[in-house]
Amino acid sequence: MRTQVAIIGAGPAGLLLSHLLALGGVDSVVVETRSEDYVAARIRAGILEHSSVELLEAAGLGARLRAEGDHHRGIYLQWPGERHHLDFVDLVGRGVWVYGQTEVQKDLIAARAADGQEIHYEVSDVELHDVDGDRPSVTFVDRAGRRMRIEADAIAGCDGSFGPSRAAVPAAETFERVYPYSWFGILADVAPSTDELIYAWHPDGFALHSMRSATVSRLYLQVPNGTDPQSWSDDRIWTELATRLGHGENGWKLTPGPITDRSVLPMRSHVRTPMRHGSLYLAGDAAHIVPPTGAKGLNLAIADVALLSKALIAQLKEGNPVLADRYSDDAQRRVWRCTHFSWWMTTMLHTSGEAFDAQLQLSQLRWVAKSQAGATGLAENYAGLPIGY
Length: 389
Ligand code: FAD
Ligand code: DHB
What we know:
By secondary structure, this protein is of the alpha+beta class.
């Protein structure tokens, strides 16, 4: 097969890239190890920044998001006895949208199918070749067991943190921070007990009340690394959430309901640089991982491919390599801003067991919640900086 861009991975980065390239008149072929149903059902992120929503709308992907997504003006920040609302719209003029990654993924799959995009699902043995030159290729075995080769002008590695693309950038520098705790996430068939997200500091550990719709709640608990999600009873999960989220304080109540999904997510930061080697470009989780506390993972993947699509269109349609040459530096500015913000939110909200740390965290939380300057810093980063920051 011959195409302009061979895209490895049909997650949000890979599918949005193929969509933006098609809008710019550049062809691509996508390969994905999982099935279409599997990638559409994976429960992951839930918050879209203002600029992610603008980009999806400009790309014609905003109809269902506008109709079914939920615009939030801000978040609640709390610690025992106190809950404060931070109104991002008042503070920085923009809010966020609650719209699950599963929904973004379904919209992307539908848009690419309507466009006749070539996507090979359930492939195996994906390998990258000749990325040093300008005639790279990708080989794989398709679902029917046939050995295939895609010849391309460029390869986009959008294959997440376990795919082969990241290893194809030789001499990349890696920066990493592993956190000593994980998130236990549940999805529950119950109306959210809050109108906007609650981020809660508690001596027993962090808790987050998020949501997916008027009838589906998404909640998270800080747990020790290695926690087996099956070892917790439903009752234990809801009791722990009620304690940490302040059930009974100032008349607020957490309503429990049937748990439909549960998983434990280890927390780490990981940045690889550069994000380009020859004709291979990395985007999304293939290049960086953030701990989820700042809700940045999906938004960073969207911001990467916004830059990468422009760079590849300029290079492949107009022969202009300037943006492609700058891609890694341009993308990394935002990556490090989000990496810092995610680290800052994580260390402010998760308990370490050290009494000194707890007092610093409470002092910082009071300052962020009560000072206009502190609140504005959180709001600006959470609601998201403009693409290209
Ligand atoms: P992915 O979504 O990982 O997509 C990569 C794709 O590449 C996958 O479909 C994979 O199957 C495919 N692939 C892998 N190997 C190959 C191969 N060899 N060949 C072809 N294809 C391959 N972020 C938040 O902001 N908030 C959250 O609450 C949150 N929760 C998360 C929970 C989990 C369990 C995980 C894993 C991530 C979570 N994230 C969260 C992060 C967020 O989901 C990611 O940042 C986002 O999915 C990045 O998109 P991506 O397209 O770069 O990578
Ligand atoms: C969700 C995930 C996050 O990491 C976060 O910070 C907020 C919300 C969610 O899954 O809804």
